[in-house]
Amino acid sequence: MKEPSVTGSLNAAQPYALALFRVVTGLLFACHGAASLFGVLGGAHGGGTVAVGAWPGWYAATIQLVAGGLILLGLGTRSAAFVASGSMAYAYFTVHQPDALWPLQNGGEPSAMFCFAFLLLVFTGPGAFAADRLFSTRTADRGSEPRRETVTA
Predict the structure, then answer these.
(1) Phi-psi category of 74—alpha, beta or left, where left has phi over 0 and alpha has psi -120 to 50?
(2) Is 51 helix (H, G, I), strand (E, B) or coil?
(3) What is the pTM of this model?
(4) Could you tell me the end-to-end alpha-carbon distance of the chain, in angstroms, rounded to an integer?
């Protein structure tokens, strides 16, 4: 009897590891938005909230909360991750990069990491246990029903 290889076992676990990555990343991103919008978890920038409609903070926090929640659930993951990745790229280049070149120097490590984490999800999809799979399964099931032909005499 052949023993399974480590690579084979890791490949089999890949959708579940990707799902865990998606859930954790989405949760952390949504927490940033909730902190800025509602003042929970320490609030925005050490306390308080972002003023409603304030550019770009309020919009960024709204994207963080909504996109983070969608990514967490695995609902519209690729689209939500694309928007989230773009918002973090914008944050990095407008807020952090003007202060210094490297993320370690300018405090932009979270923005850079979130940007590339979400970009990865754009290309990989949500992994296992995503709400998207509930809807795609139902659609696929309807589309795969056998076609009934009527015979006319």
Answers:
(1) left
(2) coil
(3) 0.83
(4) 60
Q: Which of 78, 65, 2 is nearest to 30 (CA)?
A: 65
Alpha-carbon distance of 57 to 80, in angstroms, equals: 18
Q: Residue 80: how many CB atoms within 10 A of its CB? A: 26
Question: Which residue is it, tokens 């940033």?
Answer: 32
- The rounded distance, in Å, linking the Cα atoms of 112 and 15 is 24
Query: What DSSP designation does 129 have?
Result: S
What number of residues does the chain have?
Answer: 153
Residue burial 66-78, b: 16+ Cβ < 10 Å; e: rest: bbbbbbbbbbbbe
Under the banding of pLDDT at 50, 70 and 90, the label for residue 111 is very high
Which residue type sits at 116?
F
Q: Which two tokens stand for residue 79?
A: 């689209």
Secondary structure of 106-122 as H, E, C letters: HCCHHHHHHHHHHHHHH
Distance CA 89, CA 119 (A): 10
How sure is the predictor about 136, in pLDDT bands with cuts at 50, 70 and 90? confident
